[in-house]
Write a structure and sequence with these properties.
transferase; alpha+beta; four-stranded parallel beta sheet; binds adenosine-5'-triphosphate; kinase; membrane; Rossmann fold; 24% helix; NAD/diacylglycerol_kinase_sf
């Protein structure tokens, strides 16, 4: 345990330094792990936990995140992190300079975001986004040396308005400290821009501070992390992205875009009509949902769909053809939806009455609602996750 083993990654710098007043060997590995000896025991901090470093006189303070469940810290749950500094003192000016250069090079090589635009929705969920951001998220971003431009949303569609005209080239990502509503506004704002192809490359990060938080739950759960502000912030700092599908919704002459879900009937009614119980947080969905289930409504309609492979026997062949999409005017700007010729597809239909129609792009409809376990996310919009 105490000696370098042959499986250890090679050191990019290795030197004798002072740790707690004792001269000890210290190494930074190619994986970004910092290894040293303390009280005769080998200690280390994993790559992913190094956030930044500062020079304080002769000393170097490395800001790290430590998973409580493992590594060098105490017991805890996976994804439960605490901030911890590691301080060492190189034995000469040259050694200190070399350490700083190597740490700089290493942190630069990780491709982490350097400047983020952050939306904080003070109205979402139990109205605690401001507190969550200031207490749990901002200190981590600051430790990671991420420059922030913070914007509280002042009214509905404010985030969309800003995103539609912001200079996206100034940022490495947009973060929403909110529920799913602000995320949807940001996605729609990006897709309505004339330069949507470029704008769409900007990763979007989420920090759960709403009532449902289905998207961030769907991003964190598959990598075994709790749906917490800390795990979300860390995944943003690490800067790894994953792509999401975008659904295009046409309603009359209006077009909008969805990344989470589309609901008609029971779930939509619960979502909209429980607004008056917003102060309850996510419990508003359960309590109002129960009330709606006791007094169940029915919704008449017809659903036309193109079955996925393996689901061809669902419904009946469509009894009428699908209306042709109105042709896109030359003046239309922004994303207009996929190029697919809808009238050429093998449509089938289901006739109501329905109780609930719930289409999902991701598995979780809300933090406690695994609505579509097989809705595996794929392809096109980058979202920060682990
Ligand atoms: N200052 C504000 N006052 C009123 N509404 C706002 C304000 N800022 C944003 N909004 C609106 O609040 C709505 C809900 O926000 P958000 O999605 O963050 O929370 P939520 O509805 O509680 O969570 P979820 O969508 O996950 O259920 C959004 O549609 C947004 O446009």
């Amino acid at each position: 345990m105490d000696r370098q083993t042959e499986n250890d990654p090679p050191a990019i710098i290795s030197d004798r330094v002072l740790v707690n007043g004792v001269v000890t060997p210290l190494a930074l590995t190619a994986d970004g792990e910092i290894r040293w000896m303390e009280s005769g025991r080998r200690k280390s901090t994993a790559e992913k936990d190094v956030l930044s470093f500062v020079v304080e006189g002769n000393k170097v303070r490395v800001k790290t995140l430590v998973e409580r469940g493992g590594g060098i810290c105490c017991e805890g749950n996976a994804g439960d992190y605490t901030r911890k500094d590691f301080v060492f003192e190189p034995l000469s000016d040259e050694s200190r300079k070399l350490w700083c250069d190597k740490l700089h090079q290493h942190l630069d090589s990780l491709g982490r975001p350097k400047k983020l635009f952050v939306f904080v929705n003070p109205f979402g969920g139990k109205k605690s986004a401001r507190k969550i951001f200031v207490e749990e998220v901002k200190p981590l971003f600051e430790d990671a040396n991420i420059q922030l431009e913070i914007q509280e949303t002042k009214y509905q569609l404010h985030a969309k308005e800003i995103v539609r005209s912001m200079d996206v080239s100034k940022y490495d990502g947009i973060v929403c400290v909110s529920g799913d509503g602000v995320l949807v506004e940001v996605v729609n704002g990006l897709l309505e821009r004339a330069d949507w192809r470029t704008a769409l490359k900007l990763p979007i990060g989420m920090v759960p501070a709403g009532s449902g938080n289905g998207m961030i739950k769907s991003l964190l759960e598959p990598v075994g992390l709790p749906c917490s502000a800390t795990s979300a912030a860390i995944s943003i700092i690490r800067g790894r992205t994953r792509s999401l599908d975008v659904a295009t919704i046409s309603q009359g002459t209006t077009k909008f875009f969805s990344v989470l879900m589309l609901a008609w009937g029971l779930v939509a009614d619960i979502d909209i009509e429980s607004e008056k119980f917003r102060w309850m947080g996510s419990a508003r969905f359960d309590i109002y949902g129960l009330q709606r289930i006791i007094c169940l409504r029915q919704y008449n309609g017809r659903i036309l769909f193109v079955p996925a492979p393996g689901f061809e026997s669902y419904g009946q062949p469509a009894s009428c053809s699908l209306d042709k999409e109105p042709s896109v005017s030359d003046k239309a700007i922004g994303y207009q939806g996929p190029d697919t010729r809808l009238e050429d597809l093998g449509w089938r239909e289901m006739k109501g009455p329905f109780v609930s129609v719930w289409l999902h792009n991701v598995p979780w409809g809300a933090e406690n609602t695994l609505a579509a376990p097989d809705a595996k996310t794929v392809l096109s919009l980058p979202c920060y996750h682990l």
